[in-house]
């Protein structure tokens, strides 16, 4: 009985599960490797000769090849930059959408105020001027209030010296023009006007004793005609209650900005 012989394929490639050594393939590999090394040597020798004979062209070729190398290195960073740009564009689109929705929610005919730029100062609301009822103050508080007005409008060295033995000077200061300012304060009711005798007592000390450059009598009421006449004769500034309110509110001049009143002021005699 004849037993058929089974042909084993690939027996020349593997032996016991491992590749067999092929002398022919190994010889071809080393031959090609030797040819490659010879070619590389010839190219290197030729390149050296070119560099020696044409150094300028060598530099030009290096400069032309450098951008390609840099472009290859920067390629990966461009992808990251594109991702950041896309993120910023998405944030800008979201902000624009929010602004549009706010505009749609605003009542018809009413414009929404535009937001202030970053770092901009927000204007504060101007405080309303304080209205002081000077007639309701006592004598000491009235002197303090007049001194505060002098200091507010630029006077320096403001002092309240009123009291016993003040010789007619209640407030002493230096006005913005550098003149010595002497103020006598009279807190009177509307029906009690300052008379000529009080002006005479003040006029007898404001210039000779206190050496006033500007002498002013400030009252919450008014002045009699003889008092105004005497003040004009001596150069004393008279400020009645109406002028005091205008000075306090900033709509009228300060005492040192007023001229001495004229004797024909039209006020009735005392």
Polypeptide structure, described:
With 270 residues, this protein is α/β, with parallel strands linked by helices. It has helices spanning 23-53, 55-105, 139-152, 196-206, 225-234, 241-249; strands at 14-15, 18-19, 156-160, 171-174, 180-186, 214-219, 237-239. The chain is rod-shaped. Residues 10-16 and 262-270 have low confidence and may be disordered.
Instruction: Look at the structure and give the mean pLDDT.
Output: 77
- β-strand number: 7
Which quaternary structure do these chains form?
A: single chain
Strand/helix succession: EEHHHEEEHEHEH
- Shape, principal axes of CA atoms: rod-shaped
Brief summary of the model shown:
The chain has helices at 23-53, 55-105, 139-152, 196-206, 225-234, 241-249, and strands at residues 14-15, 18-19, 156-160, 171-174, 180-186, 214-219, 237-239.
Q: Which helices and strands, and how do they pair?
A:
Layout: E1 14-15, E2 18-19, H1 23-53, H2 55-105, H3 139-152, E3 156-160, E4 171-174, E5 180-186, H4 196-206, E6 214-219, H5 225-234, E7 237-239, H6 241-249
Parallel strand pairs: 5-6, 6-7
Antiparallel strand pairs: 1-2, 3-4, 4-5
Keywords:
single chain, 6 helices, 270 residues, rod-shaped, two-stranded antiparallel ribbon, five-stranded mixed β-sheet, alpha/beta
């Amino acid at each position: 009985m004849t037993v058929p012989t089974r042909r084993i394929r690939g027996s020349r490639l593997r032996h016991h599960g491992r590749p067999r050594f092929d002398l022919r393939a190994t010889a071809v590999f080393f031959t090609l490797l030797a040819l490659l090394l010879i070619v590389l040597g010839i190219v290197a020798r030729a390149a050296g000769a070119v560099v020696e004979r044409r150094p300028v062209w060598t530099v030009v070729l290096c400069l032309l090849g450098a951008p390609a190398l840099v472009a290859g290195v920067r390629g990966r960073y461009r992808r990251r930059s594109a991702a950041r740009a896309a993120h910023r564009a998405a944030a800008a689109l979201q902000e624009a959408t929010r602004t549009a929705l706010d505009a749609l929610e605003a009542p018809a005919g009413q414009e929404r105020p535009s937001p202030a730029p970053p770092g901009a100062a927000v204007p504060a609301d101007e405080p309303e001027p304080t209205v002081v009822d000077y007639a309701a103050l006592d004598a000491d508080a009235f002197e303090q209030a007049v001194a505060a007005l002098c200091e507010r409008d630029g006077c320096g060295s403001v002092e309240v010296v009123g009291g016993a033995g003040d010789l007619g000077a209640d407030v002493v200061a230096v006005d913005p023009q550098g003149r010595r300012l002497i103020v006598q304060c009279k807190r009177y009711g509307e029906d009690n006007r300052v008379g000529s005798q009080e002006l005479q007592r003040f006029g007898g000390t404001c210039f000779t004793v206190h050496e006033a450059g500007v002498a002013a009598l400030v009252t919450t009421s008014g002045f009699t005609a003889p008092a105004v006449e005497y003040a004009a004769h001596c150069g004393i500034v008279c400020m009645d209650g109406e002028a005091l309110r205008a000075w306090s509110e900033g709509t009228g001049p300060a005492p040192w900005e007023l001229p001495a009143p004229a004797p024909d002021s039209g006020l009735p005699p005392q």
